[in-house]
Design goal:
Layout lengths: L1 H13 L19 E3 L34 H17 L4 E3 L5 H17 L4 E6 L5 H14 L3 H6 L6 E5 L7 E6 L4 H11 L5 H18 L11 E2 L11 E2 L10 H17 L7
Parallel strand pairs: 2-3
Antiparallel strand pairs: 1-2, 3-5, 4-5, 6-7
């Protein structure tokens, strides 16, 4: 159940990679968020990429409110909007993610923190190193996800979550908001949270799946057993390495996807000999 939900969300998030242009390709394991009381970029210059012109199903398209504005005007407006958020006492979170996986880890971890609380909440997540197009792609994907009735029936905790861009994309910052949980939503949360997950049993079940499907059915011919992968790829410069198993007991969809993306960051930041 949780595995299926996390895969649905993770695959949706992966599409933001298509909008990630101009990245240096440098990978940094940077998923931690730092809270600033007065986080406003000084002399900020925005590097815009083209926003998606593809219509979002079920969502009315609006004219670009930023059309005709100079880069300096956009930068000044962005700083003014951040100051307005500070006046509203909205926390501004600065994140130095510079790739899709680190952006996704920080974003879903933040959503999970808000999702855990029952009261209404709002934060601003600033990502100076991420192109506007990549942020816009996530917002569009998230908007489309919430129009899918069958999926949202399985992802009810996301119904109270909304994600948008500051100033409709005038700068690289998300606004993440949650509404107060209703009594019915609290009952759903409590029922979901009442299910206990055992790490040893969960890991054993996953290893059984890896053994049956990945190894015995050769879904991956380079995985020879549940503990060792990338066997036989030395000529391609890929050394064998241990298979890593990670566990999290959360039943919240956003938390599960946050764990997934943090595992991706871990995988990409460590030598292949440590995690395959």
């Amino acid at each position: 159940m949780i595995f299926r939900r996390s895969i649905l969300l993770a695959l949706s998030t992966l599409t933001t990679a298509l909008a990630f242009q101009g990245s240096s390709g440098v990978i940094r394991h940077t998923t931690s968020l730092s809270r600033h009381d007065a986080f406003v970029p000084s002399n900020y210059r925005i590097s815009h990429t083209a926003l998606s012109e593809t219509a979002v199903p079920g969502v009315e398209q609006e004219e670009d409110p930023l059309a005709g504005m100079t880069e300096e005007q956009k930068a000044n407006l962005f700083q003014a909007l951040l100051r307005d958020l500070q006046i509203e006492t909205v926390p501004l979170l600065g994140c130095d993610a510079n790739a899709v996986h680190t952006m996704s880890a920080a974003l879903w971890t933040t959503i999970a923190e808000l999702s855990e609380r029952d009261e209404a909440d709002k934060v601003c997540l600033v990502m100076e190193a991420i192109p506007i197009g990549a942020l816009q792609a996530f917002v569009e994907d998230f908007t489309v996800l919430k129009t899918q009735g069958r999926l949202m029936f399985e992802l009810r905790e996301l119904e109270r979550v909304s994600v948008s861009l500051v100033g409709k994309g005038v700068g690289p910052a998300f606004i993440i908001e949650t509404t107060e949980r209703t009594e019915e939503e609290i009952q759903v949360k409590n029922a979901r949270s009442s299910v206990a997950y055992d790490e040893a049993k969960s890991t054993a079940a996953l290893k059984s799946f890896i053994d049956r499907i990945v190894v015995n059915e050769q879904a991956c011919p380079y995985t020879k057993n549940v503990d060792l992968a990338a066997v036989g790829l030395d000529k391609q410069g890929v050394p064998p390495g241990p298979v890593a198993y990670r566990f999290d007991a959360s039943s919240d969809a956003a938390a599960v996807v946050g764990v997934f993306w943090n595992c991706v960051c871990e995988l990409l930041s460590k030598p292949q000999e440590e995690i395959s």
